[in-house]
Amino acid sequence: xxxxxxxxxxxxxxxxxxxxxxxxxxxxxxxxxxxxxxxxxxxxxxxxxxxxxxxxxxxxxxxxxxxxxxxxxxxxxxxxxxxxxxxxxxxxxxxxxxxxxxxxxxxxxxxxxxxxxxxxxxxxxxxxxxxxxxxxxxxxxxxxxxxxxxxxxxxxxxxxxxxxxxxxxxxxxxxxxxxxxxxxxxxxxxxxxxxxxxxxxxxxxxxxxxxxxxxxxxxxxxxxxxxxxxxxxxxxxxxxxxxxxxxxxxxxxxxxxxxxxxxxxxxxxxxxxxxxxxxxxxxxxxxxxxxxxxxxxxxxxxxxxxxxxxxxxxxxxxxxxxxxxxxxxxxxxxxxxxxxxxxxxxxxxxxxxxxxxxxxxxxxxxxxxxxxxxxxxxxxxxxxxxxxxxxxxxxxxxxxxxxxxxxxxxxxxxxxxxxxxxxxxxxxxxxxxxxxxxxxxxxxxxxxxxxxxxxxxxxxxxxxxxxxxxxxxxxxxxxxxxxxxxxxxxxxxxxxxxxxxxxxxxxxxxxxxxxxxxxxxxxxxxxxxxxxxxxxxxxxxxxxxxxxxxxxxxxxxxxxxxxxxxxxxxxxxxxxxxxxxxxxxxxxxxxxxxxxxxxxxxxxxxxxxxxxxxxxxxxxxxxxxxxxxxxxxxxxxxxxxxxxxxxxxxxxxxxxxxxxxxxxxxxxxxxxxxxxxxxxxxxxxxxxxxxxxxxxxxxxxxxxxxxxxxxxxxxxxxxxxxxxxxxxxxx
Length: 731
Ligand code: NOJ
Prior knowledge:
alpha+beta
């Protein structure tokens, strides 16, 4: 910029000093015009966050390359980072000329159908940069800057060219300081891996060639910067495009889009270099790319940039979408005491289901999942989603569900044959709706799935389209989805709140059968800062018996109290209590917490935590003044101190008559001044002094006392331990 100012001044000087003295007025006008153009152009290519601390600048290189820089508190935190694409017929990485800019401010509050909080504030400033490529192609880039990060997406307006075949996306993030990133490799099957910390230093050597390797990472990545700040890089609103992956090359984090695959495919010889990544029909908007940047971990976790970038809810009547806990004929199959297929140990029988449903009713659990109720489990070749096994009486169970007020969670395992499933989608969802089923757990067990386009990565463009089609079809039939083997969530639940939960995680089931013996204690203390930041997780907490006599080399690395803590630390509006009724009854007093804990929240706070060590969350139950606190630790014992000051947080819960008020002013100004100090009955479920995940996992104490917001609670968590606490307001 300094150089351009210098050259502009030299031009003006030359012009003024020229022999032409006749028309001084003309010159003054010219200079005026140049300065107006110059300054308006300069100021409009940068946009700051509403609080002014974060500034994003759109920038261009001499050859018309496009990129951006970001600074915070006047320090450059992202140096010039390229933007653009490679397409089948040309590079859209340079040769651009800026033809216009537009700016907008935005501030609003919207109400969630369910979530970690009821109201979400969306405050950002926007810059739209319109570009014309030397080929005539038009492309806009829409930037949004929030107080806690920034986002952008590419827009291709309607124009002469009608389609685009994208072979690479050039989006990069050149962080200026050393950093470490929590991530999993991009080819981690179903995202079910242990997240690890890797160096993300700008000084890392360049990688050989262009091909992604195992160093390529799944999106998202969570970053710990050398100066103690935090970052989270991910994408939002992925509906018709391949999922992004990220890799480091030449000091920058770069984008690798999941490619289309061409058959025949031999697993290890997947041809991925220069393959097509996306087929795009214009007009088109890519998903958002976003980076959260915060000074503290609680702020990182509280960021709602991803949800704000998704489209508002498209489902008009959402009254049928209900957060709830559920149990299931499920863990028995994973610990191998039951089978999915029909036989002597068949799990999903009418009799078992009735027993589970009656248990659920007695303990206030909203629904029961049944896996293996339908034909096809013998060979996984063709699942029949509308024909039950002979020992499953759908009509009877559906009537029972009605009379008990306990729902059946349906299960559709496709074995990765998405094409087969998609073919009959309407009929399948109609069948489930007719049987009163309002939630379906879908499954795609196959590292490469078969879509209508042949064998594809599930997170490639074709897979992404399939999953969206399922969500939309389910919505038509008033059915919510709990998607297993999904594409990493990107906040679509704002638009389709019937997409309630997803797996995409190395969940509890690994503790039943994994050949490595089960996930280490650390695993659960990483997830709230990585996978779960991308959206609700169906981890399936709540194992109450850790030894598995059938697979004795494997076990759950946790204490019973750690399992309770997960119900608060891991967010999902469909929260599964995964163990068997008889195991729960072995610790009926501890099970009371699972009975009571809600899964829909008014507000949520990370009280304390360190990625990979421990975390403590506090959440206010939606629609009440009750709070729940959960803590979990890794293999280290830890004492945490929890000031209960959050009990004083202005409650966004509206008026006492239950009337919902979305008005921000009223929302945040409710004050407790002058009111009587509320007192709470606190029930604390904590590890006993000698508890230890390895030696005494079942040792716990339950204590009750009265507290107010002025109190501070100290809790010791055992190795692999945790705690849970319920704070009920005294009337
Ligand atoms: C894998 C899923 O994660 C698990 O929950 C399910 O039980 C099996 N697939 C069978 O569908």
